[in-house]
Design goal:
270 residues, mainly alpha, 10 helices
Length: 270
């Protein structure tokens, strides 16, 4: 049953990509609207600082638990009589004949947005910019998030040692192990952190566009690894899950440190 569903998804992958992207954008906008409405209500609450911290901490913990749970479920299925492996292969085989070359060329260009060289350069440039702006604490948090995710992903790859698809598209070259997808987790963390920094540093009119852009980039880069057949679907989903978990952990840690510094009446470096 799972293999048949995977085959159907592979045959309709391109339209399903746009449907999923539209749903993600709608969910992001709805979540943003709900957050804005809650923020307006908090302004009339005299216990706002503690309440805000508690709600942010609860949200961060929920994302961490959900992401870790999804990753663990996928990891367990890797050795479960190879059911997931057969479904992954069926989807990959279907993609070989269902996705036109024009789309593959576009995804091959977009996938470079999360290459190791791209994220390394982005990490360095953004860290320097934050230091120049006097945001040294955020610069440290940014480097820990991006670099730490790279280290985490390589560690997980070595632990699971899953081989990549045997017939990748010629538009992309990938080496090393497959599970979880480093491009997927890297795009979630890097562009998610950029959205967080935008919420912290930019005027309110830029907040929603930054969030939407991060969602589009992360999802598109992850999907590109699947379309280019350098990763299986479960690799990409695991990359999204591990990336979201690490991102939530980093942001929650930054927010807690920020609250603690304010509580101690120290200069707010975060």
């Amino acid at each position: 049953m799972l293999t048949q569903r995977a085959l159907w998804i592979g045959q309709h992958a391109l339209p399903l990509f746009f449907v999923m992207l539209a749903l993600l954008l709608a969910a992001s906008c709805a979540g943003w609207w709900a957050l804005q409405r809650t923020t307006r209500l908090r302004r009339h609450n005299t216990r706002r600082p503690a309440l805000v911290l508690g709600q942010r901490f609860a949200l961060g913990c929920a994302v961490i638990l959900a992401g870790a749970g999804i990753f663990a479920a996928l990891a367990r299925q890797l050795g479960a009589k190879d059911v997931l492996g057969r479904a992954d292969q069926a989807l990959t085989d279907a993609l070989r004949v269902s996705v036109p070359q024009t789309a593959l060329h576009l995804f091959a260009a977009l996938t470079h947005l999360a290459d190791t060289a791209t994220l390394t350069g982005l990490c360095i440039v953004m860290a320097m910019a934050l230091v120049v702006l006097g945001q040294r604490g955020l610069a440290v948090g940014w480097v820990v998030a991006v670099a730490g995710n790279g280290l985490l992903n390589q560690t997980l790859k070595q632990v699971f040692g899953r081989v990549r698809p045997l017939d990748p598209d010629g538009s992309a070259v990938a080496s090393g192990f497959s599970f979880p997808s480093g491009h997927s987790s890297g795009s979630v963390v890097a562009y998610g952190m950029l959205a967080y920094l935008a919420l912290r540093l930019l005027p309110a009119r830029w907040h929603l566009p930054a969030l939407v852009t991060a969602v589009v980039l992360a999802f598109t880069v992850g999907a590109s690894r699947l379309f280019l057949r350098v990763h299986f679907a479960s690799d990409v989903m695991a990359g999204f899950a591990s990336g979201a978990t690490w991102l939530a952990l980093c942001i929650t840690g930054i927010e807690l440190l920020r609250w603690w510094r304010r509580r101690l009446s120290l200069p707010a470096a975060l």
